[in-house]
Amino acid sequence: MKPRVNPVAVAPDAMKLTLEYGQKLLQLGLEKSLQELVKIRASQINGCAFCIHMHTREARAHGETEARIYLLDGWRESPLYTARERAALAWTEALTLVSQTHAPDEDYASLKQHFTEQEIVHLTLLIGMINTWNRISVGFRNVHPVTAPDTKAA
To answer: Taking residues 89-105, what's their average pLDDT?
Structure first.
């Protein structure tokens, strides 16, 4: 895959604003592990390899387990996620696929059991932000870093 354009080089001011906005959202108080799970899950749905690569690395760096990262696509069938994480992941899926789901009332009701109204707004903004980054990365064909395979293991 070949990148189409480097948005930072072409529109540095716009990209700087987008980056600053995203960084500020991360400081609004939601736990880091939850933020990374949400970013990974939205990126999986959107097929954004660049963002999946980035956020799985960040999740590991902040102590996330391999099992929870590997099973994230099947979170509904795994006991490894808390009720709060499940509510956030359902909301992530609902908003990432909003044209199909229309943000169901039952997903919002589940959120209200585990999040304050302010946290729901912060989570919703975070979901919107990762979807923006997914669209930038997929649209411009950003390529994640590639390392040579470990030939010693073969």
So the answer is: 98
